[in-house]
Predict the 3D structure of the following.
Amino acid sequence: MSEKRFLRPGEYFFGLHEGSVATLLGSCVSITLWHPRRRLLALTHFLLPRDPQGILVYDTRYGVGVFHRLLRDMAVFGTHPAEYRKGIYGGGSLLGHDKEPRSRVGRQNIEFAQEQFEILTWSADHYDLDGSDYRRLSIDGSSGQVDCQRLSWKSATFAGRNT
């Protein structure tokens, strides 16, 4: 049986894994990478674009740290970003419709991820962004298949229990 791995907010995975790697997203954003030939996968879960104090630039709780780590890990494995299929997921608004949508954390996370993709000249092969739902996101380490399920806040399951 293939091992399943679950990422909590701020956690990061990059490497070989035969099972699935999953996370649950609200306003946070995940970046997925899949290298079809080498079967390398990445799944991230960042909470904010940047550390509010500007100190923790490699901390994967923040988008800045995620992109630093992704680029470093691709280099460690001797791969190039163009070899990967890429995705961006999450950034939901879980408190209903805000009067100032640009100030929402989810919107800020989305804009940061899209800005980084533009700076790095990456294109997203898959994405599911914004909205008012949670997302259960998983990527299969054998095939690279990404599964993104939207869940209403009333039906979301957290760590095995319904809330």
